[in-house]
């Protein structure tokens, strides 16, 4: 973990300092070395939060985009007393979880049920095949009228299957911690799979990194997601009867019935 309590203050790991775990209250030791990133560890090998994964530089780089006070927030289920640490919890109540290791759908669903208002950010660089597969699937990703919003056919051929039926938005980060000099590199953007479908299609939003960070910090994220979803709802169909009325009205206004020709003819002026 990045933070432990030292004399009741949240502190980062510093050599020789002992800390207290925010979840279980047991003693933590500071691990500061050159191989792994600085962190606090429990005495044994096990962490008291089974959902916690050892952090990589990717985790820390992401977390550092947000205020320190929002890092590693302990959340408790009021009914069961179950506790877990959210990677980020914003002041607007949004939990952002950065997931590097594999997570099976059952486990994923449990966590979504616990955090509720959340978004996943998935490390798309862990498996070598994920990004090439995404690039190759161009024909399955269709543009919509709304810029940056796409419909995805056969979504499990485009993204890892364990993420495609999530009940919350899932963001794929294919860049990882790599610095990209080419501004047209598709990995510069984030790809957010929304939790709703339109018919057989999944909905994908292409989001600039800085926009995701900015809107989650200022709280606009929730409305933005809602707007994406609303904009893709099928337009209300006009009932058949009304449709034929429109047709008649149109003809009455702009066309007249030509007896000789036996059909409606367009008026010259109307
Ligand atoms: Zn603990």
Descriptive tags:
6 helices; three-stranded antiparallel beta sheet; nine-stranded mixed beta sheet; 3 domains; elongated; binds zinc ion; about 25% helix; about 270 residues; alpha+beta
3D architecture notes:
The chain has 270 residues and is of the alpha+beta class. It is built from six helices and 16 strands. The longest helix has 15 residues. The chain is elongated, with a radius of gyration of 26 Å. The termini are far apart. About 3% of the residues have low confidence.
List the helices and strands and how they pair.
Blueprint: E1 3-6, E2 9-12, E3 18-20, E4 27-31, E5 39-42, H1 57-63, E6 71-76, E7 83-89, E8 95-99, H2 105-115, E9 118-123, H3 130-136, E10 141-143, E11 149-152, E12 170-173, E13 189-198, E14 201-208, H4 209-218, H5 221-231, H6 240-254, E15 255-258, E16 263-266
Parallel strand pairs: 8-9, 9-12
Antiparallel strand pairs: 1-2, 3-4, 4-5, 6-7, 7-8, 10-11, 11-14, 12-13, 13-14, 15-16
Q: What ligands does this structure carry?
A: zinc ion
Instruction: Give the mean pLDDT.
Output: 89
Order of helices and strands: EEEEEHEEEHEHEEEEEHHHEE
Most strands sheet: 9 strands, mixed
Alpha carbon gap, first and last residue: 75 Å
Strand residue percentage: 25-35%
Spatial ordering of strands, largest sheet? 6-7-8-9-12-13-14-11-10
User: If helices are DSSP runs of H or I spanning 4 or more residues, what is the number of helices?
Assistant: 6
Q: Give the fraction of residues assigned to helices.
A: 10-25%
Low-confidence stretches: 246-252
Q: Give the CA-based shape.
A: elongated
Q: How many domains, as an integer?
A: 3
Q: How large is the radius of gyration?
A: 26 Å
Query: Helices and strands: which structural class?
Result: alpha+beta
How many β-strand stretches? 16
């Amino acid at each position: 973990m990045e933070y432990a309590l030292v004399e009741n203050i949240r502190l980062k790991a510093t050599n020789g300092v002992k800390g207290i775990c925010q979840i279980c209250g047991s003693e933590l030791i500071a691990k500061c070395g050159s191989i792994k990133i600085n962190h606090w560890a429990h005495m044994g090998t096990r962490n008291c939060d089974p959902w916690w994964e050892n952090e990589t530089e990717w985790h820390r780089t992401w977390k550092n985009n947000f205020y320190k006070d929002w890092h590693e927030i302990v959340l408790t289920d009021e009914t069961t007393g179950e506790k877990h640490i959210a990677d980020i919890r914003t002041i607007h109540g949004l939990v952002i979880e950065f997931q590097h290791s594999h997570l099976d759908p059952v486990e994923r669903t449990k966590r979504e049920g616990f955090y509720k208002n959340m978004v996943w950010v998935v490390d798309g660089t862990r498996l070598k095949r994920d990004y090439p597969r995404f690039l190759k699937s161009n024909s399955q990703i269709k543009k919509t009228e709304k810029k940056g919003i796409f419909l995805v056919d056969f979504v499990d051929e485009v993204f890892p299957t364990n993420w495609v039926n999530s009940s919350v938005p899932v963001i794929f980060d294919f860049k990882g911690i790599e610095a990209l000099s080419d501004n047209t590199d598709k990995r510069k953007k984030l790809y957010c799979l929304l939790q709703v479908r339109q018919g057989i299609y999944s909905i994908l939003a292409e989001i600039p990194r800085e926009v995701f960070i900015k809107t989650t910090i200022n709280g606009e994220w929730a409305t933005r997601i809602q707007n994406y979803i609303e904009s893709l709802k099928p337009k209300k169909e006009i009932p058949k009867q009304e449709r034929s009325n429109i047709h008649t009205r149109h003809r009455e206004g702009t066309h007249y019935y030509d007896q000789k020709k036996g059909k409606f003819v367009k008026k010259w002026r109307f």
